[in-house]
Amino acid sequence: MRGYSTDKDGYLARLRRVEGQVRGLQRMVENDEYCIDVLTQIAAATKALQAVSLGLMDEHLKHCVAQAIAEGGVAADEKVREASEAIARLVRS
């Protein structure tokens, strides 16, 4: 079971909203909408994806990393390294 399993429906709903935002962006470009309006919607979709990312990271730390640390050993070190690398990717983007 994944850490986000308890709120899987919530994450899926958020991702479906993002999917709708991206389809809306495609329509805006197809319809030659004003650049700033398109950029504003891109920023909104980006923020929505960031919110999903942060929620998933929080769940990962609370569930997967915490469990690995409780068990100790090499698996714990690996989970912490994995989480650190994921955080670094989120910060860079």
Automatic annotation (TrEMBL):
Pfam families, sorted: Trns_repr_metal (PF02583)
Keywords, in A-Z order: Copper, Cytoplasm, DNA-binding, Metal-binding, Repressor, Transcription, Transcription regulation
Species lineage: Bacteria, Bacillati, Actinomycetota, Actinomycetes, Pseudonocardiales
Family label: Belongs to the CsoR family.
UniProt GO molecular function: DNA-binding transcription repressor activity; metal ion binding; transcription cis-regulatory region binding
Signal sequence region: none
GO CC terms of this entry: cytoplasm; protein-DNA complex
Localization of this protein: Cytoplasm
InterPro entries registered for this protein in UniProt: Metal_Tscrpt_repr (IPR003735), Metal_Tscrpt_repr_sf (IPR038390)
Name of the protein in question: DNA-binding transcriptional regulator, FrmR family
